[in-house]
Design brief:
Number of strands: 4
Distance between the termini: 26 Å
Order of helices and strands: HHEHHEHHHEHEH
CATH topology of the largest domain: NADH Oxidase
Structural class: alpha+beta
Largest sheet: 4 strands, antiparallel
Number of domains: 2
Strand content: 5-15%
Bound molecules: flavin mononucleotide
Length: about 210
């Protein structure tokens, strides 16, 4: 299984070679891997910003615990969850589903109100947590797709979401930065690339009942 070999190859890259850029055709594959991510009800209540602008990366670095990956990477992916879920989000999904799967809207009304009724019972804080969770699934797919393409990546929570929201003007768009990933190519000076993986033994991690 090639996937396992690729997952052993990948690691949370600490030092990128800033001279190497991910080519557009690979970026398109990464976008598609994110697009194909599973999400609760299929709603995909997030948006992913891909930042390649060097000035913007410089502005975001101090808001990212000054981690060098932010400026050295080729592209910085910022996964932004919807800050609030409104009925229109569900209606948009239903109309997309109706078009793509050729189903009359009337036949999707039950599903639509089921989703609305469930989501409307969530407090605003819970909605935020719920939409943010979905971004981690997308980020997981990004990390796996990167590994398959032998592109390096570092998943990152070490950043100040409020500062990101401010710098990227996310509040005005109804978005909030949930998690980020730096993507590019490892520097030959990154000693962590060769460190053995630290993982719990399979017997500790799993219990078959
Ligand atoms: C949600 C999440 C947040 C992380 N945040 C950071 C971070 O801010 N900076 C960093 O260098 N690594 C970060 N990491 C990387 C982890 O430390 C790393 O994945 C873990 O130690 C396992 O090592 P490996 O990915 O190299 O196999 C993060 C990983 C995850 C999944």
């Amino acid at each position: 299984m090639n996937l396992l070999e690729n997952l052993k190859w990948r690691y949370a890259t600490k030092k990128f070679d800033s001279s190497k850029k991910v080519k557009e055709s690979d970026l398109n594959k990464l976008k598609e891997a994110i697009q194909l991510s599973a999400s609760s009800y299929g709603l995909q209540l997030y948006k992913v910003l891909i930042i390649e602008d060097e000035e913007l990366k410089k502005k975001l670095k101090p808001a990212s615990w000054d981690q060098p990956q932010i400026t050295d990477c080729s592209h910085l992916f910022v996964f932004c969850n919807y800050a609030k879920v409104v009925d229109k989000n569900i209606d948009d999904y239903i109309s997309l589903k109706s078009k793509i799967q050729d189903i009359e809207i009337e036949n999707l009304e039950g599903y639509s109100s089921f989703m609305k009724n469930t989501i409307n019972t969530f407090s605003e804080d819970m909605q935020q947590v719920w939409t943010a969770k979905q971004t981690y699934i997308a980020m997981g797919n990004l990390l796996t797709a990167c590994a398959e393409l032998k592109i390096d990546a570092c998943p990152m929570e070490g950043f100040d979401a409020e500062k990101y929201n401010e710098i990227l003007d996310l509040n005005a768009k109804g978005l909030s930065a949930a998690v980020i990933t730096t993507v590019g190519y490892r520097s030959s000076e990154d000693a962590t690339a060769n460190a053995p993986k630290v993982r719990k033994p399979i017997d500790d991690l799993f219990e078959t009942i």
